[in-house]
Structure formats: structure tokens, C-alpha cells
């Protein structure tokens, strides 16, 4: 079985899905000849041609707006937004149309579209190249939000996202693109949306994370009897897997890199408090980015939840 | 070193039918007498619908409504040129377009009465639900045109918007992409002179809105938007071009919003009555009537017959709309996603 990094795994998912289904098209900036600034779409332009791997003008609103029209017409567009910090001009299209067209037309028109975009800090990038604004999208009914954490899951989740008939925001942690290699089977397999996975079983504490922070969490829990959950789909998220784990451990820490205020950890924390408070032995802690603008490289490491901060929160929760 | 002109353009304006009902015979589109009657009947039906909707709104039987008074020729004339299969992406002020393509009238009333089920386009038509945020529907037409080309379908996408919409980024990004890919798409701008309280000259410093097309490598045309023949002819031309792979067209229909922006607006706050009177004299329906009278296609009996038919169609639509059971609260949840989420399933228990 080939060992692939996340870039290669996503590329393989796109390639195999496009071979299987000619209604799938890719559009975005530099996705064609250049193969994407992260080389995610490398080789696809040569294999599928300019009609299916479409180099668009520099036009985020236009890319997403056009993808909505394509999806309504019956295609399955996979749109790339080059960096998550550049998605803002397209948010009107995502919120006002992609999220609503199934509802507004009572199912006559749907939007089976995937928006892939790299997110997150930790690669010493430029301003607005390190955003992690997943919570914005989780707040909008009609949108699904998926965040893979490893190459294997990236491929399976992307295939499921492409086949899903609802619009999916597919967030790819830039820090993970080439960090890990693992076995990624050729051929189709799917990882269901809306399901979390238990990465590591444990009895004393439940730690919930996703994307690149999952790996920091796994390093931080060494030496503890911790259950680590990779949420994978943030909206709709898998409440049952969380509750089952929390009922066992009674202690919860949530780790994400977005700012704390109104971050997705707030939703998880509130849900756990509403549904499982009687099982809790300690307050729910959130270890997150600070409520600041993501800083440039000199301060980036201070911004991201560190292994040390995660360990301290585990200690605090266990001692409570 | 030299200085020279490397690009110049000119904007064509088409006028065929004037206010007195006279036509330029060399330009008149090839429409049969029965087509002309049909156009007249659709114009009248659109106006009857509009006036009736305003009345129903005042009586509290509809919610906020967006009137089309004065713009009937721009809407009916352009939509009349379309094939059934063509994809339409309308703004919120488009009753005449919906009526022309045969959208069920009771569903239009149903929507304006606060029931989304009125937006469920029948399977035989390809019109999108009206777009509420100004100009945001333009890129959808671009995408549909891209998809149509990819599928090798000999069809076109058409999108409607106003003078205000040309100020949005959506307009510019859409025309730009349509130009780059030479897509089969038609942009119909109904320049009705007012974007709520903002007059056309404060919306853009361009002399015409049609000329904006040239910045993106498209053809732009201006037509008298109250002249149903000119609107039809320009649309027919643009469609033919689109279907033959000759690229997109922007058509500026110069017309006027005689009514308020919506039933929640009061246009007397920002514009002069005299201006409205000038435009009332340019009425699009009146001039077609005069033309038909000269051609022997219009009589008082015919008028009565058309009015009665329109009224009975509207009455029947209102009856269906008002006898339709309101949606069940559970319908809030259906069609958000393909399947209900676990959390929605819990919330649904409230109903």
C-alpha cells in the first residue's frame, strides 16, 4: 500500500472520483496548469483537460458563485479557495445561496459542491494565510464543515464530501500537508460525514480536537490515560461519540487553534454542559488560540495551543 | 515614441416602437400577429398581477411585495425570446419574467404571502428562485453557462438585475469570467433609474451601463426598455449568439420604476412627481396597443376580453393560494440538508 502525505492523498481522491464521475469539475485559481499553489491538483489538468480543471480569473466570489450555478445545473464542482483567509469575498455566495438553495427551492435545486481550502497557522505564512475560521461556517445551517487530520482520513472524507449532495467546506490544515505520511489505499473507500473517531482510547479524560491540533494533542497526552477524539466533521458533529466517551471519563478538554470566543469549542462545551453535566467531575476546559489576530511568524508559536498548555489543562482537569 | 488610440468602442441603442405606436419597419422583429397578441396579453397579465398584488398587500393578504409597474416590456419582451429549457436567474423584481415563461401564478402569490413553497420551480422550467441580495445571482448564470457548455447543451443562461446591481462586485466578477470563457450567458440590466433612493447618475459615472460590457471583452447594447419589440429583438440576437458559441452579451434596458421600491418604501421622499409623470407617458403597454390598433389587431372588444381573461386567471390564482393549507412547522426543517441532522431530529420534537 503506498505511503502518501495529505497532498498526495487529496490528489488521489480527486483523481479517482473524477475518473468515476464525469460530472465532477475542479475550479479555482492556479488549479490547472500550475496544479495549485500546494500542488493538490497536480496532474489533473493533463489528465482531465481545461474543461474539467478550470483555471479561473482571480475571483473568489466568482468561483463560488459560478460553482453554485454549476451545481444547480447538475455538475459536482470542487472549488478551491487558495487560502482560508481569502474566502471572505465568497461568504455572501456561500451563506446567501449555497446554504439556502435547497431550502428556498424546496429541493428543486441543490448545491452538491465542495469548497476546499487550506487553513491554519504554523507554517510561517503571510498575513491572512493562517486563518482558522471554521466556526463561521458551522453557524450557518445548510453547510457541512469537514476537517481531516491525516492522509488516510483526508482521502475518505473528501470522497464522502464530493458524493454528498449538500455544500461542504473541506478544511485542509496547511501544517499537515507534508508532515505525515501513512498508508493510503488506492481505489475507493469512504469515511462517513458526521462521525467522529476515537484515535486513542483512555479512561481518565476525554480530549476533543481536529485537524492539525489533533497531532499536538496526541503528543501532549503521552503518559496520561486519555481518550482522544478526532471530531472530523464539525457540522453536523457527532454528539453520541462525545457523550459516550465523557460518560466514561467525566473530564473534558477541547483543543482548537481558532480564537476562544465563539470558537467551535464553545458549541461543544455548551452541548456537553447541557446533555452530560451530571457525568462531569471537572469543568470543561478549552485550550485554543488567543482572542487576537493570528500573528506573523515571530509570534506564531506563542499563539497556537502548545503541548505545554495542553498538558497543563489536562493536569488541572485531572486534579479538580 | 508615439501616442495612439489602441482601443475604442461605441454603444448601440435600439428603438423600434415609439410612444405613438409607430414602428421602424426595417427593425421590427419577425413576430406573427398571434405572437404580437400574445405579447400584449402577457404585458397586460403582468400588470394585472402586479396591481392585484399591491391591493392584496394593502389588505394584509400578502407580505412585502416588489412591484414591476413600468418595467413590463423589459421583462416580458426578454423572457418571450427564451426557450423553455433556458436557465433564468432573476432578481426580486421579476414578476413579468415568471409570468411570461408560464410559472404558476398562485405560486408567485404564495411566495409573496410568506410561503417558500411558492419558490419550488415546476420541473418543466429552469428558473431559479428570485435572488434577494442585489446582483448576487449573476455568477450563478455564469456557472450554469459553464456547465451547459461542458455538457454540450445548446442552451443559454440569462440573468436579470437592475442599475444598482451593476455597482456590486458580483456584476464585475461575473462579466469578467463570462468574457474570459466566452460563455453562453445574457446579462439583462433593467436600468429603472432608481435603486431605492439612489438615482442612476449617482450609481455610476458611466454614460451608459451597456458600455461596462466592453471592459470585459463583451458586447453591450442599450435598448429602449419600454419598447417590447426592441427588448425582444436584442434578447433574440444575444440568444442566437450565445447558442452559437459567440459569447455573452450585456443588454441595458432603459426603463423606469413607476412604483415604490417595495410596498415598504415611499418614493415621494426622494424623487419628483414630475419625473414620474414623464415616464408614465412612455408607458410600454399603451404604445403596443396603439401599434396593434393601427394594424387592426386591437379593438375595444379584444381589450375587454383580454382584461377579463387576466382578471379571471388572477382571481383563480388568489383562490388557490388562499385555499392552500399553510406549511406545517416541520417544513422549516426539511430541505436544509438532504437528511435531517441528529440535532435537527431532536429540535423537530417541538412540533
Any overview of this molecule?
The complex is a heterodimer of chains A (320) and B (351). With 320 residues, chain A is of the alpha/beta class. Chain A has helices at residues 6-20, 44-48, 60-73, 91-98, 101-104, 134-138, 151-163, 211-220, 239-249, 264-276, 297-303, 307-319; strands at 3-4, 24-28, 53-55, 76-80, 114-119, 144-146, 168-173, 182-183, 197-200, 205-209, 226-230, 233-235, 252-259, 285-289. In chain A, strands 3-2-4-5-7-6-12 form a seven-stranded mixed beta sheet, sandwiched between helices. In chain A, strands 9-11-10-13-14 form a five-stranded mixed beta sheet, with helices on both faces. In chain A, 58% of the residues are buried. Chain B has a single domain (12-350), classed as 3-Layer(aba) Sandwich (Rossmann fold). Chain B has 13 helices and eight strands. In chain B, α1 crosses α2, α2 (72-80) runs parallel beside α9 (228-243) and α4 (105-112) packs across α12. The mean pLDDT of chain B is 97. At the A-B interface, α3, α4 and α5 of A face α5 and α6 of B.
Characteristic key phrases:
heterodimer, A: 320 residues, alpha/beta, Rossmann fold, 2 domains, seven-stranded mixed sheet, five-stranded mixed sheet, 14 strands, 37% helix, B: 351 residues, six-stranded parallel sheet, 10% strand
Brief summary:
Chain A is of the alpha/beta class. Chain A has 12 helices and 14 strands. The longest helix of chain A is centred in the first third of the chain and has 15 residues, at 6-20.
| Overall CATH class of chain B | Alpha Beta
Q: How is the biggest beta sheet of chain B arranged?
A: 6 strands, parallel
Q: What is the assigned CATH homologous superfamily of the largest domain in chain A?
A: Thiamin diphosphate (ThDP)-binding fold, Pyr/PP domains
One letter per element, helices H and strands E, the order of chain B comes to EHHEHHHEHEEEHHEHEHHHH
Q: Shape of chain A, please?
A: globular
Q: In CATH terms, what is the fold-level topology of the largest domain in chain A?
A: Rossmann fold
Mean pLDDT figure of chain A: 98
Strand arrangement within the widest β-sheet of chain A reads 3-2-4-5-7-6-12
How many helical elements of chain A?
A: 12
Regions with little confidence, pLDDT below 50 for 5+ residues of chain A: none
Could you give the order of the helices and strands of chain A? EHEHEHEHHEHEHEEEEHEEHEHEHH
Binned strand content of chain A: 15-25%
